[in-house]
Design goal:
Helix content is about 75%, strand content about 0%. It is built from 14 helices and two strands. Helix 3 packs across helix 14, helix 4 runs antiparallel to helix 5 and helix 8 packs antiparallel against helix 11. The longest helix is centred in the last third of the chain and has 35 residues. The two termini are about 30 Å apart. The C terminus is likely disordered.
Length: about 280
């Protein structure tokens, strides 16, 4: 051990730990830093070629004021929240039933069905939006939020089902067998045994489903045309770009405000629930 101490020397730690972590943090956070400083820069600094592009000299809130009061951004934000929350809950409910049936009921053909669900998740939305648009038109739901609520589970349910299948697979079958011997029904087993043990998986699937639906662009661009029904990803791009004129301050302000709910959900649930559940399991 004494002869290997040189591996833990300060120069080696800089090369193997500090510098790689610093580069990773820089690459990860620099786009957010650029988004923040651009949203607070006045137009004079944004268009100037002589100023410092990496710093704000005279910060302003004009871009946020224009975004909130001169555009339907509050409506876009509300539409995004509503569609994402409803789609996530609907997808989780369907995914829990599908994952439980595939992993716990042991019916013939369960593995091929699980593989088919995973393959369905790999199908790109750019292929599915054409037949989905025909269905949306036939149902008379074009240019409504309900169109997105019905379309988003088409890619959320396969992903959540595949993720929850792994969590349900890790739960011992002996717990379920003991409950069946005691006279519990399948529904009671799912609600009182499986779901409490799979809370970290449910939260993880919910966070990823919410993020996917929050950032979705193709379906929202295809199925919604009126400004008041658009979501944040589509509204910011289509309403704040006029021909070849890009309102960079308002664009970055909209992107910044649109990323805050996702960041809050990640930090709150991962810190207070997932880490707490894994800590209690280790104990």
């Amino acid at each position: 051990m004494v002869g290997m101490d040189y591996l833990q020397s300060l120069p080696r730690r800089w090369v193997t730990t500090y510098i790689p972590i610093g580069l990773f943090v820089f690459v990860l956070l620099f786009p957010f830093y650029w988004m923040v400083i651009t949203s607070f820069k006045p137009n004079e600094e944004l268009l100037s070629r002589e100023g410092n592009p990496f710093w704000v000299i005279r910060p302003t809130l004009a871009h946020f004021k224009k975004l909130i009061f001169d555009t339907p951004y509050p409506d876009w934000l509300w539409n995004t929240v509503l569609v994402s929350v409803v789609s996530t809950f609907v997808s989780l409910a369907a995914s829990v039933l599908a994952a439980y049936a595939i992993e716990r009921l042991r019916f013939s053909g369960a593995k091929p069905v699980g593989g088919a669900i995973f393959l369905a998740y790999l199908v790109p939305p750019s292929i599915l939006f054409i037949p989905l648009s025909a269905v949306i038109f036939q149902l008379g739901l074009f240019d409504t939020r309900m169109a997105l609520i019905l379309a988003y589970p088409t890619f959320l349910i396969p992903f959540c089902t595949w993720l929850l299948m792994g969590y349900f697979r890790s739960i011992p079958f002996e717990l379920e067998e003991c409950a069946l011997i005691d006279g519990a029904s399948r529904w009671q087993i799912l609600v009182k045994i499986i779901l409490p043990l799979a809370v970290p998986g449910l939260i993880s699937a919910g966070i990823f489903a919410f993020t996917l639906s929050w950032n979705e662009f193709i379906y929202a661009l295809t199925f919604v045309s009126s400004s008041e029904n658009k979501t944040v990803p589509v509204g910011v791009v289509t309403e704040l770009v006029e021909g070849d004129v890009y309102h960079w301050g308002s664009l970055m302000a909209g992107a910044l405000l649109g990323s805050l709910p996702v960041a809050f959900i990640y930090s709150f649930f991962v810190e207070h629930y997932v880490s707490g559940m894994t800590g209690s399991v280790k104990e």
